[in-house]
Amino acid sequence: NAGVTQTPKFRVLKTGQSMTLLCAQDMNHEYMYWYRQDPGMGLRLIHYSVGEGTTAKGEVPDGYNVSRLKKQNFLLGLESAAPSQTSVYFCASSSGGAYETQYFGPGTRLLVL
Amino acid sequence: AQKITQTQPGMFVQEKEAVTLDCTYDTSDQSYGLFWYKQPSSGEMIFLIYQGSYDEQNATEGRYSLNFQKARKSANLVISASQLGDSAMYFCATVTGGGNKLTFGTGTQLKVEL
């Protein structure tokens, strides 16, 4: 049972480039989340989804877009990467809202030069 | 807005001893939940324990227990009989009200020594 997987594990981008991070879960969870983690800070919510075809903004949504075309997948896009987006990105999923345990992926380390 | 405070950036404990990691929260909601997650050096986030605001008993999961003091708005994690594998970053997190978002604290780095 894979749980939550993230692709890629590590990426280097130049300022202005675009990329998409893929999150996949095989637990049939309704809710999915994207977080970023920066040194000295906890995880901050970027966007989340409460079901297929839905998305909503979190705490730090600027510069990111998301899509949830299939229940098992949640994509995070950076249209024009900036050095401030250098971070570790975590995807998570849960069966219900945030009162339910969230299961996290292994993270994607992104470096924007 | 919800706020979680973890005042201990780093803690040391000797193997086999107990350790308490502090967490205070700031919410005016009556209904909320509190989580603790562990992040080892490998990077993954691992769920440890959950406490609901209406739970009368302190939550326990194996060697982990949550010292929930509602009036003081604190939810400290107690790890008993520390092991070397407990060395990690520990995050407290809360969800309140409508319940779609977790808010995390800044974490406490725990180092277990021989």
Q: Could you explain the architecture of this structure?
A:
The complex is a heterodimer of chains A (113) and B (114). Chain A has 113 residues and is mainly β. Chain A is 0% helix and 49% strand. Chain A has no helices and eleven strands. Chain A has strands at residues 4-7, 10-13, 19-25, 31-37, 43-49, 56-57, 65-67, 73-78, 87-94, 103-104, 108-112. In chain A, the strands form two sheets. In chain A, strands 2, 4, 5, 6, 9, 10 and 11 form a seven-stranded mixed beta sheet that branches. Chain B has 114 residues and is mainly β. Chain B contains no helices and twelve strands. In chain B, the strands form three sheets. In chain B, strands 2, 5, 6, 10, 11 and 12 form a six-stranded mixed beta sheet that branches. A four-stranded antiparallel beta sheet of chain B has the order 3-9-8-7, with no helix packed on it. Chain B has a two-stranded antiparallel ribbon with strand order 1-4. In chain B, a hairpin with a 6-residue loop joins strand 10 (88-96) and strand 11 (103-104). The N and C termini of chain B lie far apart (41 Å). The mean pLDDT of chain B is 93.
